[in-house]
Specification:
The chain is mostly helical. The protein has helices spanning about 5-10, 15-25, 30-50, 55-75, 85-100, 145-150, 150-165, 165-180, 185-190, 195-215.
Length: about 220
């Protein structure tokens, strides 16, 4: 085993032992390790690429290019970021490059591309201007028991609602709430500001929560 692979396995970073093991195996040419990474991250990579590209087919092409980049760059990976974040950043780079070559690059900082500049929460849920408690909740979100949120059908609804979001909101929410990346990682991967990331995430979460509220108000029935 080469020195780089040994350092990877011995990495003390909490929570990354399995990923580091895959990196070490990949450096040794282990095909199973590559397939494990593909299974784990391919879907999220396509969602990232789709932010920059106009079709699923071109997004898939960009992801294939990204996987080649992962294989070529694995020996130089120093672990300054998580394996996941590193792979996603390569994906964004490849997707941006392809969109530039196709003459279709649109900066992600442009929120107008979502066609969604309205309020994240319906205005009628707040006290009106002039009221004693203006701009406070008139219809606050309902507290939910953990067991209701954990229900299989509720989780399925949440996934479905995330897929219905505008592409930029969907990708930011997926990276933050599904993949577990922090805001700095998401901003670095997507090349957007903290402010834009925060707005996109807030809008996405508000829409998904509204859908879940309606579902749970019906007793969890479809």
């Amino acid at each position: 085993m080469n020195g780089a692979a040994t350092r990877a396995i011995d990495s003390p970073t909490p929570g990354l032992h399995d990923e580091w093991g895959l990196v070490a195996a990949l450096r040794l040419g282990d095909e199973a390790a590559f397939l494990a990474l593909v299974k784990r991250y391919h879907g999220a990579m396509v969602r990232i690429a789709r932010m920059y590209l106009r079709s699923d087919a071109t997004a898939e092409d960009a992801v294939q290019e990204a996987w080649l980049g992962v294989l070529k760059g694995i020996d130089d990976f120093e672990g300054r970021a998580s394996v996941k974040s590193w792979i996603f950043r390569i994906t964004a780079y490849c997707a941006k490059g392809r969109s530039v070559r196709e003459g279709r690059f649109v900066p992600l900082s442009s929120l107008e591309e979502d066609g969604d500049d309205g309020p994240a929460v319906a205005p009628e849920r707040f006290q009106p201007e002039g009221a004693r408690y203006a701009n406070n909740w008139s219809q606050p979100p309902q507290p939910w028991a953990d067991e209701r949120l954990a229900a299989v059908e509720t989780a399925a609804l949440a996934r479905a609602e995330i897929e219905r979001l505008p592409v930029r909101q969907r990708t930011v929410m997926t990276l933050r709430d599904v993949e577990g990346l922090d805001s700095d990682e998401v901003c670095a991967i997507l090349g957007i500001s903290e402010g834009n990331q925060r707005v996109l995430l807030h809008r996405a979460r508000s829409k998904v929560r509204a859908a879940l509220e309606q579902h749970l108000e019906k007793g969890g029935r479809p």
